Amino acid sequence: MVRNPDSCPCPLREYGPSIASVCGSQFMLFMSILESYVNGRCDLVDPCNRVRSKTNPDDSYDFVVIGGGTAGSVVAARLSENTQWKVLLIEVGGDEPTASSLPAWFAAYWGRTETDWNYYTEKQTKACLSQSGKCYWPRGKMLGGTSVINGMMYMRGHQADYDGWAANGATGWSWDEVFPYYLKSEDNKEIGSVASSNYHGVGGPLPIQRFRYTPQFGKDIVEAASELGYPPTSDLNAGTVTGFTIAQGFTNQGSRYSTARAYIRPASKRTNLHVMLNSLVSKVIVDENKVTGVEYIVNGVTKSVRVTKEAIISGGTLNSPKILLLSGIGPADTLKKFNIPVLKDLPGVGQNLQNHVGTSFDFTLTKEADTPELTWTSAMEYIKERKGPLSATGLSQVVGIINSPLVRNKIQPDVQYFFYGYTAACGYGGNNGKIKARRHFKISPIALQPHSRGYLTLKSANPSDPPIMQPNYFSDDHELNVLVEASKIAYRLANTTRLRRKYGIVPTKGYASECGDSQKPTEEFFKCVAQRYTEPENHQIGTCKMGGSEDSSAVVDPELKVYGIEGLRVIDASIMPSLPTSNTQAPVIMIAERGAKFIKNTYS
């Protein structure tokens, strides 16, 4: 590593796998050197606050949190605030990599077995057809979970989302009741400029603000949307329901803030909080309908630890139901199929799988050369000042939320737009002479209120095997029809006067040619692109649904307790009854804050 001349009070070391080879051999030398600079920066490595994995845990704990991802990191940190409670956090992966702190490298750890579950869905008949029907779902497999590998966008959804939860059986989860928990987690750095204190909090663990760099093209997209009747707004988490904006993110001083960094590291020196990394939970141990322990596998050896109060499953939408099923909690027919003793017949475990789904369109900026964002100049700007393209996510920080012509409730929008391009993910150090290639970017319309429902179940009784994930994308035509309308608007946005005159934007010639002519798109073209070039979001929810006792499909009650099993809760995205109309990281953190509070109230 290339050390910072400033001293670091703790020894520097490298965390996580190298990203030098991610971009390909032509970039490897430059990326290796840049990574060495990153690994030598004390504020990025943060060695003094990293957790030390507990190799030999105690025999028993008051609380065992299963999964140290987006939700589990919050829950474990909050419970350990009570110094009288012993808390164990078990995480299947390692600590978050140093290089994940750089916002521009948000996808660098996708597809890596050390950091990504590498999940693929069952074969779809109407989606991801360019990938033989199998959709890729990147999911974080490390401390901090998917909050380490996502786009960091801070979006809460809309009031009607939560009021809908409460109206449909999730008593106590209306907007007015969840709003304080958003404030509790938040430390908004832009009160008075971008955000209002009426809607945002300060003093919480998570710094929230805009990235330190925005491409001019991103700003022009926001302005161009006004030509279509979507005026710019500074904050889509405030009173404005729809519009286009440069979003705030989970970032501070040019770096990503995962929940591990924001919650676990500040708690790492608490003697009552133990963290076990690289340990796979195989099941919870239940005796007479009460949780008494947790079984886990480390270095190929199966071990267990006793639980005196509660076990909290925070494995996420795809792993929490799997752990329940392996424990004998779920649909009886499924459990019997794999010779798992039925401890509690809960038909809803693994059902109600939902996800935002979209597509993407490629456009060419004929008036702009494809110059790299990552050069020696921009790299040194980041190393020295934590500014520039490496401190941001390119166009991914631009977001639009609108109502399509098919929307049913105008205070609950049904379309979100993401944009991709201008990222500093890869580079070779400079510009090789005059560049003839033109720059490209993508617009991705997303259906926020899909009607299709899927399911998750076991592939086998082996805890190391991935689950079967069947989202049933486009099994209901509603979201496909919404995407057709949203795609029309995407084309209109690209053809606005501001973007056309300044950048000479045209649909990329030959893009999705198997669907028709991208220059003269039809509704059939848009449908074909959606089904072939499907863009599943990382917003899976619903497989351990929260609901009232009268709801036979509910897995947990409104205090997130698993029905029929004492001392067991699920606290993560899987408990959401339906999707919020936005990104899901902020809602998951809210759920974790609220779940931890429920537990504290129970034992206060």
From TrEMBL:
Cofactors (names): FAD
Residues involved in FAD binding: T146, V281
Key words of the record: FAD, Flavoprotein
InterPro entries given in the database record: FAD/NAD-bd_sf, GMC_OxRdtase, GMC_OxRdtase_N, GMC_OxRtase_C
Pfam families per UniProt: GMC_oxred_C, GMC_oxred_N
Gene3D superfamilies reported in the protein's UniProt record: FAD/NAD(P)-binding domain, Glucose Oxidase, domain 3
Residue ranges annotated for the Glucose-methanol-choline oxidoreductase N-terminal domain, each copy included: 140-163, 316-330
Gene Ontology molecular functions: flavin adenine dinucleotide binding; oxidoreductase activity, acting on CH-OH group of donors
Family: Belongs to the GMC oxidoreductase family.
Name the UniProt record assigns to this protein: Glucose-methanol-choline oxidoreductase N-terminal domain-containing protein
